[in-house]
Give the backbone structure.
Amino acid sequence: MVSLPMPRSITISFTSLFITTLFMSTLSLPQELFALDFSSKLRTDKQSLMSVASDFGNLTESIPASVFYPSSPHDIAAVIRFSYTNSAPLFVSPRGHGHSINGQTSCLDGMVIHMESLGQDRTDRINVSVANRYMDVGGEQLWINVLNTARIHGLGPNSWTDYLYLTVGGTLSVGGISGQTFQHGPQISNVLELDVITGTGEQVTCSKTRNRDLFNAVLGGLGQFGIITRARIPLSPAPEKVKWVRLMYTDIVSFTRDQEHVISVDESERVSGFVNFLEGSLLLEQGLINSWRSSSFFSKNDIERIVELTAKHRLTALYCLELVVRYDEDIATEVDQELDLLLGDLRFVPGFAFAQEVTYVEFLDRVHDGEVKLQEAGQWQVPHPWLNLFVPKSRILDFDAGVLKGILGKDKAMGPILIYPMNKNKWDSEMSAMIPDEEVFYAIGILRSATSREKLEKMVDQNEKILEFCSMEGIAFKQYLPHYRTKEGWMKHYGSKWDKFVELKMKYDPKGILAPGLKIYTSLLEDKYI
Ligand code: FAD
């Protein structure tokens, strides 16, 4: 019988705007740890511990007993082997860029692995095979590094996230979605091979043809089955330039009808790779000016017209459909014709189509600009009670009425609200990520920032109400970047995949060492080990 230290949960403290330090580690680390080869890479000083105690969400704080700064995957394997074979196994959590929301990277009393110390600037951790059209990338690499390396060869991955300052291992652990997902699937559908270190410290290469169950489990697996140290990502020719279009709608019916139309267009009948990005969002006057996603798109005159349109229809927000087409010189005329045809089919408010030509790199890295502005204004480090859901297409109008117009009402400002459809057939049902059981479903991102204690309380309360509303109304949603506090919550999330999930956890992390911050394992393993 193995005795596992059970983590204590830390509740949100509303006593100050930012969560204050409430706990110090009480468990001492096994002394043998400090006698091992890698011990010089372990730190237990307060500054190191505090640097990984919270995440982008700024909603929880868990102080680990140590932080490990590996120089190679070999170091990570050694530390996990030590933990696995020790009589009292030590929890271990990989931390990528720390951009989770609910403490998913935390590791109270355990060890956080600082993945980025594997080397953001090490050229041997990011290699392009031009001949084979793929790149091998360290799990610790940021997607911005992937972009900057691939573009030298005129190539790029097919599937991205909106924001590129996230690690490859971090997004492959959750799914990785953006406006390309409808066409190419999430990032996890765009991986050829992985190197993974399992919860027993074994280093395993896996793919669809080799250790298939591990490959499928790790992709979208929330760090539960292994640590990704390398991903092989397929590449395609990248455009130099794109045309970036935004269309305004005053009603949800036309907006969603048009989004669904765009994602159903048969690409084979179009200029190659015609529309290669589709998203949508709510646009508010305050959001327009403050949103980190819109900061450089609209001119002052555009904004005035949009504000007038909103007032004229007595709305609190407009719907904005966003699409991108590749726009290289040699196909520009054809693309303009195709775009005119497409826009002719759509029902946006006449005169409210806006377009820009930008480089592909500028477009992909569009969010960073807004981040820098918020950083400068001290508004990037505030609490972020974000809620991300996948809602079936058949219930999107109910969601709009009950949540966007209902529960959120006038509280929609304070951050972007995304709403865009994707196709289920681009997701791999063998993988761990969970999606609704409908051919088309919407990604909803309610990405608000709380600048006061009252606002934080209200947003957290509204998030609860949104989840309750969906459950009461029988909306078969799934949480993206899921966060549950109970075993029942996790079991419901995984549905018929739960037993398989448990079986794979027992196979690849039998002592429940990995990524305890999600608190899946407490419910999963306590029955087995107590
Ligand atoms: P971390 O937050 O450090 O880790 C997240 C989880 O992954 C943890 O459970 C951790 O233990 C695990 N993990 C980390 N590294 C590894 C590894 N190498 N192997 C195994 N497990 C690992 N998501 C989207 O899909 N699309 C978006 O457009 C998008 N935009 C975002 C914008 C911002 C500003 C933020 C804050 C988040 C955004 N996200 C988006 C969510 C983001 O993809 C996830 O939070 C992701 O997990 C963060 O990556 P990270 O490198 O910061 O990982």
Remarks:
- The two ends are 8 Å apart (CA to CA).
- The first helix runs from residue 46 to 51.
